[in-house]
């Protein structure tokens, strides 16, 4: 059982002992810390927070604890109930709220839940803001409201529909062309809130929908991370139903994966690549992804005359660099699309609207679009080290050894070779180094990873 505290919120497994797991006491404590921080930040105003959740079994319990803690602080709550992460992000500025909380553990299994925290822009908190909240929680520095000053809870049910309309109204989403294409799309929403949002969006776009696991019961029928090894059923369904495309989302609907008409994975890394290809063809500009994302986005960006930059891993870092570089689209290689025309957050609904318009315009099969991009293959590994080893020094020595190559130390050590790259990141919770590699064949990516593991062991005298 686990409780992980970070600048982006608190995440853990339900049950067990306080401070070791995500118990009711921990949910109240961190909701109180966040609410107290918001009240300090907006001292002269009534404070309002938007709260939404995915369909996890623990969601209703955690939601009631969080909302009632906030009202106990004198904060008003806009209750979206079942929602998606990007929907809550959109609702915060539309409601002119001071912040938002999304109750979701994203792709983690059903025993997990989390409090993800947003600022008044509906964006994830900065590192400094998150650190302040952790400090308030540690000190239990709360002051609750007196009886006449308690906050109130207002239920609002329209935001998924509002989110869909915001997507449909985007200039680069052409509902008419999509409807005329006559697409059939199969959807696996892992029995969470994507089962509400994605079919609704598709039907609004005139698409015939074949649903798989779209009941928001929170009883995940398979591992909810949208990886190939978990998605055999949707791959089979695409072929059986003769669908043009398969769509897979994670429980909170910020990661998007496609299945080709042949029942094959499009590749999570290529979700962003394809959407960026379309956006850049209409609005030339710059792109951003994180250091562990595929080089294919760089290739597509340069094809359209734009500039590609890589940020440290983490959505907040991607968003910060996107703003600095005026990126027209960005995101993460795990299927996270960030399209600033709507908002600065990973959004599967935006990705669906953009990709279907692209597909309708191209008049190509999904597999043909995938084959039009350069193929890169990744290998993801880790090496365990003894606790007494200085991991930072090991990474420093690796960077020095490869100083003749293009080296970035923004987030661990990223070494760009002409035909492949290696990214080394240390864990903040255990003595391990994560090793990500990418090359033009799977064999080469695996080989490069093995070589780097051997190099690290040599440096560390293991």
Automatic annotation (TrEMBL):
EC number: 5.4.2.10
One Pfam family cited in the UniProt record for this chain: PGM_PMM_IV
SUPFAM superfamilies assigned to the protein according to its UniProt record, in alphabetical order: Phosphoglucomutase, C-terminal domain (SSF55957), Phosphoglucomutase, first 3 domains (SSF53738)
GO terms assigned for molecular function: magnesium ion binding; phosphoglucosamine mutase activity; phosphomannomutase activity
Record key words, sorted: Isomerase, Magnesium, Metal-binding, Phosphoprotein
Cofactor section: Mg(2+)
Record-linked PANTHER family: PHOSPHOGLUCOMUTASE (ALPHA-D-GLUCOSE-1,6-BISPHOSPHATE-DEPENDENT), PHOSPHOHEXOSE MUTASE
Protein family membership: Belongs to the phosphohexose mutase family.
Designated name of the protein: Phosphoglucosamine mutase
Species assigned in the record: Salinimicrobium profundisediminis
């Amino acid at each position: 059982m686990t409780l992980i505290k970070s600048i982006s919120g608190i995440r853990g497994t339900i049950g067990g002992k306080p401070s070791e797991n995500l118990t009711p006491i921990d949910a109240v404590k961190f909701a109180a810390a966040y609410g107290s921080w918001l009240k300090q930040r907006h001292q002269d105003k009534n404070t309002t927070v938007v709260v939404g959740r995915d369909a996890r079994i623990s969601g209703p319990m955690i939601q009631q604890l969080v909302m009632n803690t906030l009202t106990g602080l004198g904060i008003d709550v806009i209750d979206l109930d079942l929602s998606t992460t990007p929907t809550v992000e959109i609702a915060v500025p539309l409601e002119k709220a001071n912040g938002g909380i999304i109750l979701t553990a994203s792709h983690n299994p059903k025993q997990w839940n989390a409090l993800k925290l947003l600022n008044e822009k509906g964006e994830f908190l900065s590192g400094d803001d998150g650190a302040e909240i952790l400090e308030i929680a540690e000190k239990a520095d709360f002051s609750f409201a007196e009886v006449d000053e308690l906050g109130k809870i207002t239920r609002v049910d329209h935001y998924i529909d509002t989110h869909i309309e915001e997507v449909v109204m985007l200039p680069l989403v052409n509902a008419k062309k999509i409807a005329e294409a006559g697409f059939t799309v199969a959807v696996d929403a892992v029995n969470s809130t994507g089962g509400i949002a994605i079919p609704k969006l598709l039907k609004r776009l005139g698409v015939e929908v074949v649903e798989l696991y779209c009941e928001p019961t929170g009883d995940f029928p398979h591992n909810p991370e949208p990886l190939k090894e978990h998605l055999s059923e949707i791959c089979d369904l695409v072929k059986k139903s003769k669908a043009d495309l398969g769509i897979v989302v994670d429980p909170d609907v910020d990661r998007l994966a496609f299945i080709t008409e042949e029942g094959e994975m499009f590749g999570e890394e290529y979700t962003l690549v394809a959407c960026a290809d379309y956006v850049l063809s209409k609005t030339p500009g710059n792109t951003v992804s994180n250091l562990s994302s595929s080089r294919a986005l760089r290739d597509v960006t340069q094809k359209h005359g734009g500039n590609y930059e890589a940020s440290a891993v983490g959505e907040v870092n991607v968003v910060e660099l996107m703003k600095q570089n005026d990126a027209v689209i960005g995101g993460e290689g795990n299927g996270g699309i960030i399209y600033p025309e709507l908002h600065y957050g990973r959004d599967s609904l935006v990705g669906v609207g953009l990709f279907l318009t692209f597909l309708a315009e191209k008049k190509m099969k999904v597999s043909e679009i995938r084959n039009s991009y350069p193929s890169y293959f990744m290998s993801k590994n880790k090496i365990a080290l003894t606790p007494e080893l200085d991991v930072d020094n090991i990474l420093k020595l690796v960077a020095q050894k490869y100083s003749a190559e293009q080296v970035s130390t923004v987030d661990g050590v990223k070494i760009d070779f002409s035909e492949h790259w290696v990214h080394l990141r240390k864990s903040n919770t255990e003595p391990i180094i994560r090793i990500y590699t990418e090359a033009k064949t799977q064999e080469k990516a695996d080989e490069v990873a093995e070589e780097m593991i051997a190099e690290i062991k040599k440096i560390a005298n293991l």
